Amino acid sequence: MQQKKMTIAIIGNPNTGKSTLFNLLSGGHAHIGNFPGVTVEKKVGSVTWGDRQIDLVDLPGTYSLAPRSIDEMLAVDVLLGRQKGVPQPDAIICIADASNLERNLYLFSQILDLSIPVVLVLNMYDLARSRGIEIDAQALSQKLNVPVVCTEAHHAKGVNELKAAILEIGTGSSHQPLALFPEVFYAERKLIREKIQENQENSPPDFLVDRLLLDVGGYVESYFEHHTHNGLMDDLHESRSRLKEAGYAVPAMEARMRYGWAREVLKDVLQHPPDQRETASDKIDRWLTHRIFGFLFFFVLMFFVFQSVFTWAGPAMDLIETGQGSIEGVVESVISPGPLRSLVVDGVIAGVGGVLIFLPQIVILYFFIAVLEDSGYMARAAFIMDRLMRSLGLSGKSFIPLMSSFACAVPGIMATRVIENRHERLTTILVAPLMSCSARWPVYTLFIAAFIPNIAYFTIAGSPVVTLQGMVLFAMSSIGALIAIPVAWFLKRVCFKGDVAPFVMELPGYKWPSPRNVIYRVYNRAKSFVVKAGTLIFATSIIIWAAGYFPGDHSEQFQIQNRIEAIDASLSELDEQIAAADEDKPAAMKELESQKEVLAAEQSALFERQNHVSSQLVESSFLGRAGHWIEPAVKPLGWDWKIGVGVIASFPAREVIISTLGTIYSLGGDVGEEDESLIGSIRSATWPDGSKVFNVPVAISIMVFFALCAQCAATLMVMRRETNSWFWPVVSFTYMTTLAYVGALISYQVGMLFI
Amino acid sequence: MTLNQIIKGQVARITHINGEDAISIRLMEMGLIDGEQIQLLGKAPLGDPLEFAIRGYRLSLRLNEAKCVEVEIV
Asked: Which Gene3D superfamilies does the record match to this protein (chain B) (predicted)?
């Protein structure tokens, strides 16, 4: 007989190992998506245990089921079966930290009020035991009348027992709500319910009426305030004051009742060691949050992380670059010059390779973040940085995401998931792309090398320590972070007004990170980076390629390319002949040498012609036309149409500017940022009237534009995914492009005053 | 006195949580109930936030939030 499919919700406090357990239970086969209309992520894992089909739904970590925002309401809606697209759970798995059971039972007691079958999981059981905490799980199970399972998710222990408990519960045992509150409360609940029904609202579940009464200023109260007009709010206030007179003041009553219950439940079940004030974790903490040593350790650690991201990633990035080059070589030997080859080489390989090159940095950064999170240090980093971050209107929890954004905003924005407060999270997401990511470096390097004189201000033992070029590079890398201060301030004070996020944060005990967990997280992030960013970059690079390719006539270009490659072949043939030739026959040797010279001369003439043709093709392409079209807009920035084209082409990814400038300045697209000939052509580029296009203010204006502009389609796509809305990427793009334009305008106009 | 005034290592008993706003509700949910004992373990390097021991776990609060909690020294 085919049994009904079961839906099981997983809920628990933050830091209880919930995700690790979810991954173990779902076998890593989870579908990740957003709930319709909210920022919260939905993780569903479909598994088959025995003959049962089970959908596991992972809910966001929470301390309580008292919703204060639409995101928190979501967990409640799923549990009550009110969320569209998610069937009401047949059972709940409530994960609790075994070493911190009393507080974790608070949420559990609220779950009991839902009257849905539940399994209580005591996770991190090993950690609790190592602290001398003894729990009699069987006695606890009897007392609560629900199954209790002990697990160590970090070591994948207890999972089979948990599966068995869930399958057993699926056959139907249920429990009564706790009914912790005094008679008078339930009398008031009845009155309020009648009042709601009078308004012809569908009768809400008991749990929601409780929330309406108990959560002063909560989400449920503000919902009813907007949806009822029969004086329900007045009745509510009266009910609350009657409760207060009876000695059960809201909201303190709920916490007191539930914690009283938790203590009662644990009385004979849980044994604490006699003195548990100072643990090993506390001793480590005294050092790692120490006034001087704590700061020192923090900054040394951050420096080490960044240094590692850049130095360790180097060889892997070189490898990817070489691989990209050899794939191009293979394609070029297989496909003859034509639109197809151009699409594959200049569009697909260049575009996708340009993104994959950042993968090593992201993997290394994510390795460190996973280790820091799993060990418990991340909470301390937020603790240490909170005071500084608060001056930006953010909290310590924003520090790590913003720090990651210096490598790449894509993982940085993904790291904002640790921020529970919605407005704080959005503010962090919106300023993250201002942090100077590594994709901006090629732009800085090129223009600094070309236009900023290499003056040393301070030397130690003959080697320059402080140089003008270094200072400009530092200024460009920090300008975004500086601009982020007023932007964050504006967002917090003007757009998200009156929303003060409390910084009530648990500091979990230190522990050794689990390799399984670290690898799993790094793998997942890397995969999602490659898939999401890769598909998008793939698409946009084809679009940009097409815009720069059509509608020109490329036949001459291909003829030249064919001829160049033919000459290449002849030249290497000649080289072989020369090497094989008999040295005693100087006449034959001379003949070969002169043949070679003729061919080389023809080839270099062809190269020149090819570059000329290519640049004309770019100028007449859609991209080139767009460049001319926007010339009036970019002229006040000191730019000509060619720079305009470079900037337009760079909107999907800023690194594109180098190859675009290379193409436009008749050098072919295959140039690097340290290419001497590119620097030379840029220096000698002129306006039609013969005056120089580039000078220091123009270079600064371009760099400032690149420092502030949202030229990264991958970032905008991740933003869309993380906020589940197109609104925020559009806001981000608009405000950053405006900032970039104004910044470039000021740099150029002010700069010209000094020339 | 309030919780932000106790010194490092001191153990205090909570007597009352002021306010009915989101912050005070959150504090109660985290187990800061009248009659409960709480100890100040240390401060962040810049003096804020603070780290407390309560109900066998470690909780961090800002000075501003600690101000909502009335305590008496044990």
From this structure: 2.30.30.90
